[in-house]
Fold this sequence. Notes:
The structure holds two protein chains of two kinds.
Chain A: H1 3-20, E1 33-38, H2 43-53, H3 57-72, E2 91-96, H4 109-118, H5 120-126, E3 130-135, E4 138-144, H6 146-150, E5 154-157, H7 158-164, H8 166-172, H9 183-191, E6 195-200, E7 210-215, E8 222-223, E9 226-231, E10 236-244, E11 252-262, E12 267-274, E13 280-290, E14 295-302, E15 307-310, E16 313-316, E17 322-332, E18 337-346, E19 352-362, E20 366-375, E21 383-392, E22 398-407, E23 413-422, H10 425-432, H11 438-449, H12 451-454, H13 459-473
Parallel strand pairs in A: 3-7, 6-9, 7-10, 8-11, 9-11, 10-12, 11-13, 12-14, 13-15, 13-16, 14-17, 15-18, 16-18, 17-19, 18-20, 19-21, 20-22, 21-23
Antiparallel strand pairs in A: 1-2, 3-4, 5-6
Chain B: H1 3-14, H2 32-39, E1 45-48, E2 56-58, H3 80-87, E3 93-96, E4 99-105, E5 107-110, E6 114-122, E7 127-135, E8 140-148, E9 153-161, E10 168-176, E11 181-188, E12 193-202, E13 207-216, E14 221-230, E15 236-245, E16 250-259, E17 267-276, E18 282-291, E19 298-306, H4 310-317, H5 323-342, H6 346-365
Parallel strand pairs in B: 2-4, 3-6, 4-7, 6-8, 7-9, 8-10, 9-11, 10-12, 11-13, 12-14, 13-15, 14-16, 15-17, 16-18, 17-19
Antiparallel strand pairs in B: 1-5
Helix pairs in contact in B: 1-3, 4-5, 5-6
Amino acid sequence: MGEPVRVARERELREVIELSEGSVLGRVMPYPKEVEIRGRISRDLIEEISRSKGEPEWMRLLRLRALETFEKLPAPNWLEGVESVDLDEIAAYVRPKVEAAESWDQLPDWLRDAYAKLGLPEAEAKVLSGLTAVFDSENVITRVKEELKKKNVVFLSMDEAVKRYPDLVKEYFGRVFPMADHKFAALHYALWSGGAFVYLPPGTKVINPVEAFFLIGGEMEGQFEHTLIVADEGSYMHFIEGCAAPVLKKFSFHDGMVEIYAKRRSEVHFTTIQNWSGSIVNFNNKRAIAEEEASVEWVEGSIGSRITLTYPTTVLKGPGARTKNISIGIANGPGKIKDVGAKAIHAAPNTRSLIISKSISSGGGIATYRGLVKVLRGATNSLSHVQCDSLILDKESRAYTLPRNEVDEPTAEVTHEATVGRLGEDQLFYLASRGVKEGEAKAMIVSGFIRDVLRGLPLETVSILLKVIELEFSELGSVG
Amino acid sequence: MNKLRARALEYSKVTPWQKVADSPVTKYYTDWRSFEEVLDRPGQVSYERPRGEWDLVLGPCGSDYNYDIDETLLDLRASRLYSEHVARLEGAHLVDAKGRLRVALCRPTGEAWASQHLVINVPERAEADVIIYAPRGAPGSTGVEVKVKEGARASVLIVAEPDPRWPTAYLIRRAVGVRASLSSLVVASPSAVERVDEQTVMAARSRLTHASLTFSWGAARVDNLVDTVQGGRDSSADVYGLGVASGPSLVSVRGTAILTPQAAGSSSRFIVEALLLDEQARAYTMPMMRIETGDVNVASHRAAQYRLPGDQLFYLESRGLSPGEAMELLLRGRVDHLIGLSGVPGEAAGTARSLAYALVKRSLTGGLTPRLEAPAPS
């Protein structure tokens, strides 16, 4: 080969490597920042964040109370892989130099291009009734369509809701997921910024989904968005949460939170398709309270990130309340940890919970299911079923299932089953002999493995999930 | 005091009862405070001869200690319970088992802590069927280690009968060597606070079938932990746990099936169940798996908490059985099934059955308030 061919080949390889490092956004690019607050997590840092956001006094005090709680609580001693995270090194608050927009045209080119690569404007135009996007620590665009306006649905950024609807926010903020639950919940409350607030009036049914999208722009940053959904009696909505980040040389840290209050007979579906790049350490705190006859469904697709810890929880507070929790976790690559699961707390009679988990580990990754079904005394005739299956794609990978069933009510019935199996060499050989590359073969087998949980999910969720899984096992997902 | 016991004494001063909480909601399934309270209780311990006919009676009431314990399968740094157990031993027994063997330990009685320890060794390529009776009348710990050497076949029944008043720990460790097989059954009656702490370590091509049957009534709190560590390739483990709870008691049936990176080609099945007999009973089940190798054959686990089926109870009562008789019959069926799964043969199965039936009866006569049954499937 001659010199020009060798140079061209090297450029081609470089492009492939850049594209293949786990993100459609490619490598991180510099962008203008208006405010960046980093340093030791202290009272001064919290005060500066609160001042920078122009918050009311009660929110500032809440943050400081959370900081005290964070300092008192010990770190959970069962966590794996997060020992290297130094919270004092990361930027706790980053405001990009972007005016909050109501249309895509109002965004600067560099940001509009990033969202275009992710397919957000198209999705918003075709299928959503509302969307808010958080970049680093602030909402940069919120789109509220006619359906939401006509139905008097309150949908805006969490920061704006704190100022415009203080009484409503105060009633529910921090009441579903207490700050003292664990150290990283307290950290979240101290540093939270950005997110979404939704209030559904009684009887309101929002047909098309609403989405919040979270993008981390740079490395050594923290994102602490807070989503609060209050579904009043008899209401219905489907909320989608998406996440992405470019490829980072160093890590960034996500410690987000979702609180859902589902009042009597309401129905909330919450879907997360998380495809962070391989440099993100991801904590996701999610909890719902379901009142009488209410229903909360969680769908958790944990595909990306270096480490993810998330355990969507529903407290079944009212008689007849029910919850369904579907989680799919893929740990693909050495050092990748997906520690995902679910918790259902039965606190009233005739409550129902169904937890289905599918974990896949590949390329040296570790997939863990960690769950809890707690049935309190008095939760008579409650039923719970948990099914957690694991698929291990190669010799180097590992799978753990750690379920706990604590039943203090003898009239309840709780069942649990799980299998762990290995992808057979013969299955791969069969597909390879038909011309299917290894990555495609793995993606096909994984899609088949999770097929039964996809049934019944909204079409847009299924198609995004399958696409993301395909990406994960293709060249684009195999490194980083 | 030999080196092992000296080391255990040192560890007991610095090791916590439990290093990591059991769950975010219920911190500890074993009430460690109860053990702490009786650890240094003053008083004398005497040893009574156990009832029944036995090939060997071991302890101060029978054959003297013959083993200055210098190694143990207990991880002394994992829990203060293990290090205290070894540190407080006055002596231990080592028995080479071949053929049929019925062994009983002397029954310690009193109000002070007493620790006892028995090691059963099944030599290479030997066959043994062992019944071990371990009664207690004092707080403390009984340790039983069963070592099945390469190519050997063994069945072991352990009957754990603590004093219902005292915190008691049964520390049971099993090692199954290369190409060895072990059928194992543990039947335990309850005490106020009881921990039945079992672990089996398996080598390459070994086979284990094991069942644990624990009862809990009155105000008892029983924590049955059944761990399996498969550390060699092509090993196979079938492990079952059943807890039966009545009255305001709590039974937890749990454990972890671990397949290490060396356990390529291995299989594991782990099933835990809790049967609740009345409205006050409580149960916790935790079947965990840690698969450290992708080259696993198959691993599965299952858990269930349930009541006796109402339609089956109705069927029996409509044939003239009283409610108590109907429950007893169904419970005996469950217990028979579990004993069958353990694989222990002939005499041991018969012994276990008799004991289990007596425990079933005791569970039902504690005053069920009122009887609990599951609705018939629609």
